[in-house]
């Protein structure tokens, strides 16, 4: 609809977004989220993997009517590392390919649609271990800072902040 509204061919934008899956195609590489919580609904196609604290990689299967709530870096800060930001990825697996084949057979859309909510702490709120977490032996690894400054630091680490002089 946006393309048509701009007077472009109807597939001007969507043709640039096609990510036809071959097993092993990575849609979102191994990472953690910098926000407070990430809430995942069911996706049309499988492929979300998470890593448990013991390092085990697990394919996520969100049951119908359920959500997956994943901790982000901000809650890790507020709990002095008691809750660790969850590592995850989205990649095409054999189950993804089976789901694509079934959708194709039924003439359903092959777009991978997932509903995800990213909850963030307010920019001017202070991130620091709260309550009893302040007494944790790990609390010193999480010094007080404004959430906005924390986000800037995280973006700089992954090179998304931009260079000096850019706005």
Task: Write structural notes for this entry.
The structure is a single chain. By secondary structure, the chain is an alpha+beta fold. The chain has a single domain (21-106, 113-157), classed as B-lactam Antibiotic, Isopenicillin N Synthase, Chain (Jelly Rolls, Sandwich). It is 20% helix and 23% strand. The chain is built from four helices and nine strands; from the N terminus they run αβββββαβαβββα. It has helices at residues 2-5, 73-78, 94-105, 147-157, and strands at 26-31, 37-43, 48-51, 57-59, 68-71, 88-91, 114-119, 126-127, 145-146. The strands form three sheets. A four-stranded antiparallel beta sheet has the order 1-6-3-4, with no helix packed on it. The chain has a three-stranded antiparallel beta sheet with strand order 5-2-7. The mean pLDDT is 90.
Assigned CATH class = Mainly Beta
The amount of beta strand, in percent, is: 15-25%
Radius of gyration: 20 Å
| Stretches with pLDDT under 50, minimum 5 residues | none
Global morphology? globular
The total count of helices amounts to 4
Order of the strands making up the biggest sheet:
1-6-3-4
Major sheet attributes: 4 strands, antiparallel
| Overall pLDDT | 90
Global structural class: alpha+beta
| Secondary-structure element string | HEEEEEHEHEEEH
CATH superfamily: B-lactam Antibiotic, Isopenicillin N Synthase, Chain
Gross CATH architecture: Sandwich
CATH-defined fold name: Jelly Rolls
Helix content: 10-25%
Any idea how many domains? Answer: 1
Alpha carbon gap, first and last residue: 31 Å
Q: Report the strand count.
A: 9
Protein name: Isopenicillin N synthase-like Fe(2+) 2OG dioxygenase domain-containing protein
InterPro entries: IPNS-like_sf
